[in-house]
Every structure is written in structure tokens, then in C-alpha cells.
Amino acid sequence: MAYTNAKIYFDGSHYIAIPKEHFSRVQKPSEQQYEPHKAEFNKAYSESKSLPKKERKEFITNSLKDIFENEWQAEEYVQKQLNRVATNRIKRKVRLMRKVNLQEWTHFCTFTYNDKIHTEDSFKEKLRNTLKHLVSRRGWKYIGAWERSPDKQRLHFHGIFYIPSMIGTLQEVTDYSTKTHRRQITHQNTHFLKHFGRNDFKNICTLEYIVDQLLELQERKIQENTVLKMLVKEQRQTENSINNIMSAIENGGTSNTVMKRLRELENQNEELEKQIRIERAKTACRISKEEIERYYKTALQQEPQMLINYLVKEMLLFDDKMEIIYNTPRTLSLDESQGFLLYDGNSKMQMYETNGVCKGKTDFRLVMKF
Fold first, then answer.
1. Is the pLDDT of residue 83 over 70?
2. Is 370 helix (H, G, I), strand (E, B) or coil?
3. What phi, psi does 296 have (nearest 5°)?
4. Backbone angles phi and psi of 114, in degrees to 5
5. Bridge partners (DSSP) listed for residue 145
6. Mean pLDDT value across residues 81-96
7. CA gap 344, 321 in Å, rounded
8. 19 CB contacts (<8 Å, ≥6 apart)?
9. Is the Cβ–Cβ distance between 291 and 299 less than 8 Å?
10. Band of pLDDT at residue 248, cut at 50, 70 and 90
11. Sheet holding 358-369, edge to edge
12. How high does pLDDT run on average in the chain?
């Protein structure tokens, strides 16, 4: 088979090639058969957008029944057209998913416009033109849709993007969200902010993004090593006590009790020094970006059950919580208590008795850690 002439798509786990001879042939407008009453159906279908499925079918049938000899013919025609619309919708969704799975998406973006810069029409026209140029000149790829806010009906654009080369710079902005009624952090692009208005660029959780987040978490945990800080503080206090006793001895204040306390403090100081060395050794044992990437790339190549066995070390189920302990890319381990806490929170869970009767929802704690 000539693979260069084939259409390739990715179904999520495999790449699939369709030979050229199996392409579906699109009819030219001159070859398409004229369907009577299609225009009337499309008009009624468009007017009944907001109706539920059953009521929508009744509305379309009532709109077309005068065209046909009897109501039965109208119902049969409407059902045939509804089946056509549903089939076309499924085919469009399949084509869309094939396109989505072929790309490595990097950002989820939202674009709105400033009334001082644009009207609604000029915003749509200029944003489309800008994205078209970014696709041809910067290699951007995107799939998106226009949407209106439910309250103010204000137009905006949502899309998933592959951005190999960013235009402008991303700035972290903290403001108040009227939707969630709390402070939020957004990443606004200076170029789109200047030429359009408010925008938001969110990183999609690609493997590279996950690895970067794990590296940040590792550095933050190392900087926030409270055990090491407590040990250093305790050692400092012990050394001060030893120095005070030594000053008392130099001034002639010797006794068996003083000498006994001095030996105790010296033994304590030696033990603290050992513990501090262990904690500092943990801090020095950093996992590199390459090690983390290699670990998770190997995991993603496994079959589902092997993937779970590769990533998850153990799962502990209690009456009020569940702990999931993951395997770590770290190959050298000083002890089992040096891992990182990834998540610790409560969520509502359905609780069932042994006979299958639902007891309702209750707070259930989920803990995920290395």
C-alpha cells in the first residue's frame, strides 16, 4: 500500500491508515440530487433549537404537514431528515476527534474583547485573521468555538491550541472572578491584551508540563524541609547549653551533676548531627528532568494493567479515607518516609451497605503521595 497517499489518523492508541481507494467520494454540487422540502425542514429545524427532542420533532412535523398529503408522510419524512442530521453530527464528531488525537495540544485559551478597541463584528473578523496568520507564520494549530456568556450574552472564543512559538509574553494576573466569587490567577498574553482585550492562556497537562510541575514540587518540598529546620534549631540550642556549661566549668563551677549533664548534651549533639546528615542527604538526592521523563514514558508504553502496576505501589482503604501510594522515579532511597504528598482532600462519595442499599453521600478523604 502507498502510505504516502493514505489518510492517517490516531484513535488514541494506534495510528490507522486508510488507502486512497477507500476514500469516501464527496459529490459535487452539480451531482447532488435535489431534495424537495429540504429548505422547509432546515428552516423549521433552526427555529426549534431551544425545544426538547420530542417537542422539536412535533414542531417540525406540524410545520411541514401541509406540504404532504397526510400526516403520516410528514412524520416519515421528518424522521428520515432527523436521522440524516444525527448521522452527519456523528461523522463530524469522529472527524474532529481524529484531528484532536493527531496533535500535541499545549494551551487552552479564552479570548474576549474590550469595548474601547472592538465591536463584536470587528472582534470576530480580526481574531480570525490573526489566528490565520499565526497558523501560517508561527506554526500554531487550534480547534475552537464561539460562545456567549449566560448572563450578559457577551461573545468570546474558547480553543485548544498547539503553540510552538509564543507571540508576546505571558503575565500572571491575580483578580476577582465574578463566576466563582473568589480570587483567581490567570495568564494573560500581552499581544492579545493590547489588540483585543482580556484573555487567558492555560497550560494543558502534557507530559512536559507534568514533569515541570513535579520538578517545582520537588524544589518546594526541599526548601520547605521542616524536619531539617527543627533539627538544626535543636542542635543550636544544644550547643548553646554546652557552651554555658563550659563557661561555668571555667569559672570553677564543677560537680558530678554538671559533668553528667555535659556528657548527655554531647551525646545528644552527636545524635542530632547524624540526623541532620541524613536529612541533608535527602535534599541532595534530586531527581533530574530526564529521569522523570524516562520513567513516565516507559509507564505509558505498558498495557493498562501493567501501567497500574508500574505506577501504583499500593492502595490502602480505611473506613473514612483511601491512600494511594505511587512508585517514584527515584532509584536510591534512604528510607520510606522521604516521599512527597501530592494531594490530600475530602470529596463526597456514595456509600453502600453490603446488601447494595445506598446510604447516601458522605465525606471521604483521599490521600495521594509518593
1. yes
2. coil
3. -80, -30
4. -95, 130
5. 158
6. 90
7. 10
8. 1, 2, 5, 6
9. no
10. confident
11. 312-317, 321-326, 358-369, 341-352
12. 81
Residue 28: the pLDDT is 55
User: 358-369 and 321-326: which strand pairing?
Assistant: parallel
Are 98 and 8 a contacting pair, CB within 8 Å?
no
* Grid cell of 288 as nine digits: 533530574
* Partner residues linked to 202 by β-bridges: 108
Concatenated DSSP letters for 258-295? Answer: HHHHHHHHHHHHHHHHHHHHHHHHHHH-PPPHHHHHHH
The single residue listed with the C-alpha cell 541532595 is: 284
Q: Determine the average pLDDT of the residues in 44-64.
A: 90
What is the distance between the alpha carbons of residues 118 and 156, in angstroms, rounded to a whole number?
A: 12
Q: How far apart are CA 48 and CA 128, in angstroms?
A: 29
Instruction: Collect all residues with Cβ–Cβ distance below 8 Å to 232 and sequence separation of at least 6.
Output: 276
Angle at 113 between CA 110 and CA 118, to 5 degrees: 150
Q: Is the pLDDT of residue 176 over 60?
A: yes
Type of residue at 116: K
C-alpha closest to that of 143 among 104, 207, 90, 99: 99
Residue 344 to residue 366: CA distance in whole angstroms: 6
Q: Confirm if 65 and 40 have CB atoms less than 8 A apart.
A: no
Radius of gyration of the chain (CA): 33
Write down the H helix ranges in the chain: 38-47, 53-64, 71-101, 120-138, 190-195, 207-223, 226-250, 256-284, 289-300, 304-311
Three-state SS string over 103-118 comes to: CCCCEEEEECCCCCCC
Domain ranges of the chain: 31-101, 107-204, 221-284, 290-369
Specify the pLDDT at position 122.
94
Say how far apart CA 211 and CA 307 lie, in whole Å: 18
